[in-house]
Amino acid sequence: MTQVEQEAEWFDPGLSFGCTQCGNCCTGPTGFVWFTPEEGQAIAKELGIDVETFKTEYAVKKMGRWSLAEVKRGHLYDCVFLTWNEDHTKAGCSIYNVRPTQCRTWPFWPSNLKSQIGWDLAARHCPGMRLGGQFVPSDQIRIQRDRSDPRL
Fold it and tell me: Where in the sequence is the domain holding 118, given as residue range(s)?
């Protein structure tokens, strides 16, 4: 099948998404933010430290893979790089320019795109998926999905 003949998917012709800086994708129950060796090197460089120091201070090895560390905040777990403004209403990322692919491709993960139901379930926790924002054409969504870890 050629790209032109690509089978239609439920999200054709596209979806709208706009980050609201709610931080919900970076906090919640404990989880994983996988990163590749190259991404780890880029993060370490951004932080001005060597890779081993980055891994010791900001990462954990789980199930044989490296994940960004978490910081417990009440009953939630924040990504170690999650930042908040003074009144805790807007979230940010202290490594935004070098954040891992897993972060860059949210919300266009395979699990969220399997069905409209999967998208709607994820949208319960992500206002940017419900409130609209920028229209993202389906071809761009497929690129993001295909860059994502298929286990997401």
Answer: 14-147
